[in-house]
Design a protein that fits this description.
181 residues; 7 strands; globular
Length: 181
């Protein structure tokens, strides 16, 4: 079963995703796909909190900030259950590089295809993304391009996954399928 979870910041997405991952794994291997690259102390602290929250939950961590499909080489897609947190960080890593001032304009399409392919190739997966579309503010050209690319990734996952849910205030609204809660 594949599950796509979206929602606003600090709404309980990661906790619900971990719970779903545990329910799907049924004692089998659980892989946590870590996508965030730490660029500053705030990032490092956030990663520490996420690592601490997974302590004792028997996740095998796969550091995969780019090239998502490569992590299947170091795991068992036919038996494992994957938790990718987050699509948002994965895309930003694919789209922007500290070494290059220009955005990779093909990153959204490439990442959306990789996410959908990943969902097709694994037995169980939970994908977490951030809902960043309702602000109503005007953003820079770079931010607008990123938001469009993230929407493309989110739509690809919504189409590919068995279950689609939005989390708000730690409460899920399911739009497709059922959560294993």
């Amino acid at each position: 079963m594949t599950i796509f979870i979206s929602g606003g910041c600090k709404n309980g997405k990661s906790s619900i995703a971990e719970y779903c991952c545990e329910a799907l794994a049924k004692g089998g291997p659980k892989y946590y796909i870590a996508t965030m690259i730490a660029y500053d102390n705030e990032d490092r602290e956030r990663i520490k909190r996420h690592v601490a929250s997974r302590a004792g939950k028997n996740f095998i961590t796969l550091e995969q900030p780019k090239d998502l499909l490569a992590c299947l080489e170091n795991s068992d897609p036919s038996e494992g259950t994957y938790l990718l947190d987050s699509v948002t960080a994965l895309l930003i890593n694919e789209m922007y590089s500290p070494d290059c001032p220009e955005a990779d304009h093909k990153a959204g399409e490439r990442t959306a295809k990789a996410l959908a392919e990943f969902a097709r190739r694994v037995k169980n997966a939970v994908f977490v993304s951030d809902y960043i579309y309702s602000e109503g503010a005007e953003y820079s050209e770079y931010t607008e391009e990123y938001m469009k690319a993230l929407a493309l990734c989110d739509r690809a996952l919504a189409a590919a996954c068995d279950c689609v849910a939005e989390i708000s205030g730690a409460l899920p609204t399911v739009y497709k399928g059922e959560l294993p809660l």
